[in-house]
Amino acid sequence: MDAETSAVGAVEAHPQQPSRVCVVGGAGFLGSILVELLLDDGHQVTILDAFLYGDDSIRNLLGRPGLSLVPGDLRDIAATVHAFRHADAVVHLGALVAIPPATSTSSSRSKSTGTPRGRRRP
Ligand SMILES: NC(=O)c1ccc[n+]([C@@H]2O[C@H](COP(=O)([O-])OP(=O)(O)OC[C@H]3O[C@@H](n4cnc5c(N)ncnc54)[C@H](O)[C@@H]3O)[C@@H](O)[C@H]2O)c1
Q1: CATH no. for residue 69?
Q2: pLDDT, tens digit, 9 for 90 and up, residues 19-78
Q3: For a designed S-S bond to 66, which of 17, 44, 55, 88 qualifies (C-beta 3.0 to 4.6 A apart)?
């Protein structure tokens, strides 16, 4: 079972069948996949993301019923409280995963996916 399927399974295994899920880092590689799966399953999804690499990875999801965005940093308590306030479950995928070398720039990330070039899908 891959990571995103596992995360969806964890949400669905909740005894109360949560329908409102906040995905921190929902604009990232794994987050954007998870958000789409959750929306497809009828969950309401809030993305809390600092959009460090833009929003290309979720462009196809913008406007989907049940999706809301909270642009912000997880370390900002006001943004986090706002994003979590109605959530039945929170999935935390917000992180600095592949910190580029000091000589790299954000251009080392794919413009189409917002994820580092060369990263393989799990
Ligand atoms: N990609 C993989 O193959 C893989 C495998 C195993 C585990 N993981 C873990 O899954 C998590 C997500 O990985 P990913 O590949 O999707 O990363 P990613 O870099 O593609 O996405 C991370 C997202 O988090 C956001 N973010 C970073 N710091 C933030 C902050 N302080 N506040 C709000 N948003 C913030 C970024 O803007 C980005 O959209 C990481 O913890 C990673 O270690 C990833």
Answers
A1: 3.40.50.720
A2: 999 999 999 999 999 999 999 999 999 999 999 999 999 999 999 999 999 999 999 999
A3: 44
What is the residue range of 98's domain?
18-108
Q: Contact, 12 vs 89, CB < 8 A?
A: no
Residue 26 within a domain: yes
CB of 119 closer than 8 Å to CB of 29: yes
* 51 C-beta closer than 6 A to ligand 1: yes
Our measurement of the distance from residue 70's CA atom to the centroid of its chain's CA atoms, rounded to an integer in Å, reads 11
Q: Is residue 30 lining ligand 1, measured as CB closer than 6 Å?
A: yes
In a domain, 80, yes or no: yes
pTM of the full structure: 0.79
Whether ligand 1 lies within 6 angstroms of the CB of 122 is answered as yes
Among 97, 99, 106, 117, which residue has the most ligand 1 atoms within 8 Å of its CB, making it the best to mutate?
97
Q: What's the one-letter identity of residue 98? A: A
